[in-house]
Amino acid sequence: SEATVMSHKLMLRGGLIRQSAAGIYSYLPLAVKALRKLERLIDDEMANIGGTKLSCPSLTPSHLWRESGRWDAMGGELWRLADRKNADFCLGPTHEEIVTQLVASGLQSHKQLPLRLYQTTTKFRDEMRPRSGLLRGREFIMKDMYTFDASELAARVSYGLVCDAYGKILNSLEVPFIKAEGDVGQIGGSMSHEFHIPADCGEDHVIVCTHCGLSINQTMVTPHDSGESSMPGCRLTTNCQSHSRKAIEVAHAFYLGAKYSEVFHVTFTDSSGEKQVPEMGCFGVGVSRLLQACIEVLSPPTGDRIVWPKRIAPYQVCIVPLGMERDGSASELISKAETLYDALNATKASAFDSDVIIDDRLHLSAGVRLADATLVGYPFLVVLGNRTLNSGLVELQHQYSRDTEYLSLETVADRLRSCL
């Protein structure tokens, strides 16, 4: 289908993704590099709260989903299939069932708790109308965490820690976000919070009270017979003065209680020797969706270039030697570009390690390569041309501020380091 959302258009034009089928995309090298940086950022925050990383199979047996009741409750969005022996399986959109079964096989004592297990893997959902690129896909990358605690109090501590970590991730990406109360939906549980990035292309509507600061998904707001709406939990005694924002949901938290641990007979022995059932939470970040959402809200509305969060730009520096194959100056400019490349990666602890790229496509014109570099949104663009050959100066373009400097080839590496 034809792209209509700005970020989807930019990702296609910039060579980040290619559509294979409706809602299914190949991630090209630039997108893969940005995704890996985003995953490392998430890994760091998960490690800070005691998260342990694992990897569960995407293909899960139907009996687990039947035990939890979600085989039928999920409806058409659950991607079902059968093997050659006619055994039913599904491609997991989430992994509550299989992780709970896994913990049930190994948990024995309260001394093993809390458990905060997470993974970042490909998930599947048979969307009826996939659209907007990675914002609504049938195959997507998600970070999902599952927590197990000895008591409700401890489980609420874990819940708060994960929600705080999600806020830190979004702050690190320098994107605006709203934490809103949400519906528990098919996941279940007794409490839920969503993390939204405000955007005109978003499919969610978040209601924000201008008095008490409460934010809530519009699906949770109950209309009165008078046509007025009530926001559950709002501290105002009269009708709220609120406004609605369209937004992209990028993360979600659920307090599950014993919903899954009871079904799958998860128990542990407490300090008194009594058998207890752990309290659970589950938490998700739509990694591929978050990547596109960042591009959507940070890039200029003109749609002519990508602006990345500084932490996840695929490369920090692009060096463009302007010579062409038929131009005798090409080899000299390439040599100088390689010298600068080596200078930026001079030590193992270099801030630019694996973050510098040379555009050596000398069969393309200077204009085409400069336009590509602007579109892709490298934070720093270093241009080597006639000025470099004649006076030893290079052009340093700052893509965030749109400023330009002219520096000697010998000093540009130090200047770039100072910008980080």
Task: Please give a structural write-up.
This protein is of the alpha+beta class. Helix content is 30%, strand content 29%. It has twelve helices and 23 strands. Strands 3, 7, 8, 9, 10, 11, 12, 15 and 18 form a nine-stranded mixed sheet that branches. It has a five-stranded mixed sheet with strand order 20-19-21-22-23, sandwiched between helices. Strand 13 and strand 14 form a beta hairpin. The longest helix has 21 residues, at 152-172. The two termini are 39 Å apart.
Q: In angstroms, what separates the terminal alpha carbons?
A: 39 Å
Structural class: alpha+beta
Helical stretch count?
Answer: 12
Radius of gyration, rounded? 25 Å
Main beta-sheet strand count, sense and barrel state:
9 strands, mixed
Number of strands: 23
- Proportion of residues in β-strands: 25-35%
**Mean pLDDT, nearest integer?**
92
Q: Which geometry do the CA atoms define?
A: elongated
Keywords:
alpha+beta; 420 residues; 30% helix; five-stranded mixed sheet; 12 helices; nine-stranded mixed sheet
Give a quick precis of the structure.
The chain has helices at residues 6-13, 29-48, 62-68, 70-73, 96-104, 152-172, 259-263, 287-298, 330-344, 366-376, 386-391, 412-419; strands spanning 17-21, 24-27, 52-53, 59-61, 79-82, 88-91, 115-124, 139-149, 178-181, 191-198, 204-209, 215-217, 222-223, 229-230, 242-257, 268-269, 275-276, 279-286, 317-321, 356-358, 380-384, 393-398, 404-408. By secondary structure, the chain is an alpha+beta fold.
